[in-house]
Amino acid sequence: MKHNFGAGPGILPHEVLKQAAQAVVDFNGIGLSILEISHRSPEFEAVLDEAVKLVKEELGVPAGYSVLFLQGGASTQFAMVPYNLLPTGGKAAYVESGVWANKALKEAKFFGDVEVIATAKESNFTHIPKDFTVPADAAYLHLTSNNTIYGTQLHEFPASPVPVVCDMSSDIFSRKINVADFGLIYAGAQKNMGPAGTTLVIVKDEILGKVDRKIPAMFNYQVQVEGGSMYNTPPVFAIYVSMLTLRWLKAKGGVEAIQKENEQKAKVLYEEIDRNPLFKGVCVPEDRSHMNVCFLVENPEHEKPFLKFCEERDIVGIKGHRSAGGFRASIYNALPISSVYVLIDAMREFAEKNK
Ligand code: PLP
């Protein structure tokens, strides 16, 4: 087995993959593949119901919120959020904490005014901008909880006088959150929840239906809520594997237990980055992500040899994003701490050999 530090799609628990593989051949012994069953069958309805129930349980979703499994990735949410929540002539506030936030705000500009109330562009997104005031006349405040590319994370969410919309694609289910603090949360599944192909949306029902533009059905949250994520054929397999992953998470002790593990994984890895003279961290320590650990080599000549050194040890997926360079070790929920120690050992050995 490889040690998969890939950023996205990220690692899935091995037992989940085995169950999913079996379901592709024969789902629950019914003589049909999960890929063949009707989305209106009682078997699939049970899967979707369980997936929704597990999301609610694991995140403590309060009453008054709907849980949706949609398609189109988080990138579709960049447009769907303003389509549904930003009134014509109105304004939305965005914190530009990274590349994904930047993409989100660009989409919002199709629908209304966008006020970028803070940006970390000048530091090449190596810190989280915290010094801002949220305008009380904005329709919503948009945040990105974890910056997958540069490796920063919002460790505390700001107070806001307006509904908070948050892209949690790369840290959902990795730590406790208070859903009641948010108007809408969205996340592409393919980091901590399941395979690419479905997108989780948790929306506070009362914030919907307040814009007067016409919204095509597939982009309309209210239509999706009324259809119970089944306005059209849902991504059956992606939802099934997400449900299995949520079951796995629950069996491990849930978000609270995984948060402790994630904190420990991040701690030991950052300690090595700070201790090892060959490496250095990319982001300011207080905003470092517990999901995507970005680091550089002090001497650029060591970059390719270190990657090769890692590959020889079955460590894969640590090359940094094309726009950030360096290395990025994604330590999502399913990555065991033993893999982190394999990476740490590789860093130590490599440093020893290149003294
Ligand atoms: N937002 C964040 C924070 C991401 O990390 C990503 C992808 O990595 C996206 C949005 C885009 O997600 P998708 O590919 O599902 O559209």
Automatic annotation (TrEMBL):
Q: What is its main location?
A: cytoplasm
- What Enzyme Commission number does this protein have? 2.6.1.52
Q: What cofactor does this chain's UniProt record say it requires?
A: pyridoxal 5'-phosphate
GO biological process terms held by the UniProt record:
L-serine biosynthetic process; pyridoxine biosynthetic process
What is the name of the gene encoding this protein? serC
User: What is the source species?
Assistant: Mucilaginibacter yixingensis
Q: In which pathway does it act?
A: Cofactor biosynthesis; pyridoxine 5'-phosphate biosynthesis; pyridoxine 5'-phosphate from D-erythrose 4-phosphate: step 3/5; Amino-acid biosynthesis; L-serine biosynthesis; L-serine from 3-phospho-D-glycerate: step 2/3
- Which UniProt keywords are listed? Amino-acid biosynthesis, Aminotransferase, Cytoplasm, Pyridoxal phosphate, Pyridoxine biosynthesis, Serine biosynthesis, Transferase
What GO molecular-function term can you cite, just one?
O-phospho-L-serine:2-oxoglutarate aminotransferase activity
**Which residues are recorded as modified (N6-(pyridoxal phosphate)lysine)?**
K191
Q: Which InterPro entries match?
A: Aminotrans_V_dom, Aminotrans_V_PyrdxlP_BS, Pser_aminoTfrase, PyrdxlP-dep_Trfase, PyrdxlP-dep_Trfase_major, PyrdxlP-dep_Trfase_small
**Protein name as catalogued:** Phosphoserine aminotransferase
Quote the record's binding site residues for pyridoxal 5'-phosphate: A74, S75, W100, T148, D167, Q190, N232, T233
